[in-house]
Amino acid sequence: MVLANSIRNLLLASFTLAFVIAIGWFGAQKAGTIEAEKVNNDLKKQALFYKEYLLSELDQIDLVGSILSQNPILVSALKTKALPKDILLSNSILKKTNEKMNTSAVYLMNKNGLTVAASNFDQSNSFIGKNYSFRPYFKAAVTKSTGTFLAIGVTSNKLGFYISHALYNPSGELMGVLVIKVDLDNISTFAHNIQSDFLISDQRGVIFLSSNETYQLKSLTTISAKDRLYISRTRQYPINKIQPLNHKSSDQYYGQYQAHSINHVNYFVQKIDIKEYDWQIWLLSELTPIKNHALINGSALSFVTLIALLAFYLLYRRKKDTQRFQTIVDNLPSGVTLFDNNRNLLLCNEMVKKILEFPNSLFKNGMPKLDELVKFNAARGEYGDKDPDEVLNKLIENTQKRIDHVFERTRPDGTILEIRGVWVEEGLITTYTDITERKKAEAEAKRTSGYLRALLQNLDYGVTVIDENLDIIFWNNAFFDLLEFPDKFKKPVMQYEDLIRYNAERGEYGPGDPEQHIKMRIQASLKFEPHKFERTRPDGKTLQVTGKPLHIDGEPFGFISTYVDITEHKRMASRLRKLANTDPLTEINNRRHFTTLFEREIKRCQRNGNPLSLLLLDLDHFKNINDRFGHSVGDKALKAFSHSCRKLLRDIDVMGRLGGEEFSIFLPETSREGAFVLAERIRKAVEQIEFSDHGEKIELTVSIGVAMFDSVMEDRIEDILQRADKALHRAKREGRNKVC
């Protein structure tokens, strides 16, 4: 279910994102198309204006040239033997004309192409004396009366436009040619005031003027060999500098408007022809501002769309949340009301009507005010004998204070309600919960708890309950009595650390640093692990301490401990063990316990390789003593023998009675020689026992067989006992009172 919801939310988010992007894209395209149309219209207007400006300027210059070509002074200066004054006057006329027209130069050539007068006559780079008959404008004027030519100046090395007019004498004879050179820098300066980039190309596609200097002297088309020869011969441009301009139609469109790529930069282009001079003007507008405009508009539209969708979504969610909230409220086990700050009831679920037994008539005219509900309750005795107006005034006073409240109220039918009121900005939210059954359960639990506490307090053993913070939240009197804690520690909740500190300081945990004892026990307790151990107090009393962890949902939250005095039990167990392991007559180990200890010692020797010896002892003629003096005397003889032997043994030596007058002693870490030495001492000590009955001396002797544990042969207890028994029989055969 969670995965399905995640997938659905992901798909919805993806669809919304795609929709917002699509709206933004369409908006960007529309904005770009509108802006492209505007830009193209502006380019058209600028192109027409620029064309008209160029034609106007050049027509004026052409008109001036036409007028000057009819000036008689200039014609006189072209005569073969012209007067000096005519030359001077011609130079003056040409200079003034050049200054007024702000052209580059005005000069006069004879019919052979030799310059005879010029506006720059007084300059070092004067054209006078220069022959420009090779220029096309000269040839055109000679043959057609007028001519034009666009070229780099031979003398000035600057690009200029040349307008030429032929001069004739009154008889119609060609006298020479007047040339006006127009400085294209002036035209370029005007063009720079136009907001768009531009370029102007001649009839061969060579760009001779542009707002972008990198475009100048670039060709829009491939220049043919014929044109290259013409350019070279007329010295129109430096042919080696002319390179093709990288331009082509772009794949970028805005509506019907296609962009043009020049040097990898996209432009909108408007072209217009100047047929009079066979020129073409290109006005350029970069696409970047249009793209930015489209992007901004598209982004803005996407943002507005996103905001609109978000607003719609929030309204939808609010509606769904309201419906969900109403559903939740209607299905709550408690009654819920919401009153505004003027005590008007805004929300009320069905459980309120059910719990408080409000009739439907109260709601027939819509939601009643709080005042009406209070009066209704007071009238039916919900508040006891209190005056309804007094109850209402008190309620109004409390609402004005806006204090949260929680209280219990018992209705006349015995139902107990818990009423909780919380103030929020919108007003007062109140819940009404029927806690009748809960109160009964609490009373029953309290009664049961009382029984349980009484039971625990009357137990003979101590009980404590410790929570997860190591606070003792329950203890009984037996706990204090067994551990002899002073009454100052008796509190409803005690600190576990305080008690163990008291114990450590009075030596309950033995010698050592008390703080170390405290730290160790706190760390062990915090593990909340089950434990059971015995502890002997300094007074000799032994306690059995058992702790079991308490869990809630698998997590430990404390433990319960019991303390039982097992001192008498330990003493009784010790007595029983002694009775089970000891021969009652001689008070040494009986055969069973001796065998167990001997087997244990054999295993120890097998591990560490130490020597182990065994003595098998038998009182000589003991049957005669029993038969002659009686069993009571025989018992005394056995006791005296046992006592005499034990005085000669070490703490690690173990003696046992195997039965009747037969005894055995095993000697840990004792070699064969050492065993024989001890056996001989025992034999002599037995001879020295002074024992009598009614004045008659009774002599005691003992025969002893010695055997060694053989670790190489991996002896069993039966093997070593058998060898010791053989040695004992050999001692008896050899006359008794011997060690073999």
UniProtKB/TrEMBL annotation:
Cited PROSITE patterns: GGDEF
A Pfam family annotated for this UniProt entry: GGDEF
Catalytic activity reported: 2 GTP = 3',3'-c-di-GMP + 2 diphosphate
Record's keyword terms, sorted: ATP-binding, Cell membrane, Kinase, Membrane, Nucleotide-binding, Nucleotidyltransferase, Phosphoprotein, Transferase, Transmembrane, Transmembrane helix, Two-component regulatory system
Keyword Kinase applies: yes
Subcellular location: Cell membrane
Spans traversing the lipid bilayer: 294-316
One cellular component term from this protein's GO annotations in UniProt: plasma membrane
GO terms for MF: ATP binding; diguanylate cyclase activity; kinase activity
EC number per UniProt: 2.7.7.65
GO biological process: cell adhesion involved in single-species biofilm formation; negative regulation of bacterial-type flagellum-dependent cell motility; phosphorelay signal transduction system
Residue ranges annotated for the GGDEF domain, each copy included: 610-740
Membrane topology: Multi-pass membrane protein
Domain of life: Bacteria
Name of this protein: diguanylate cyclase
Species assigned in the record: Candidatus Terasakiella magnetica
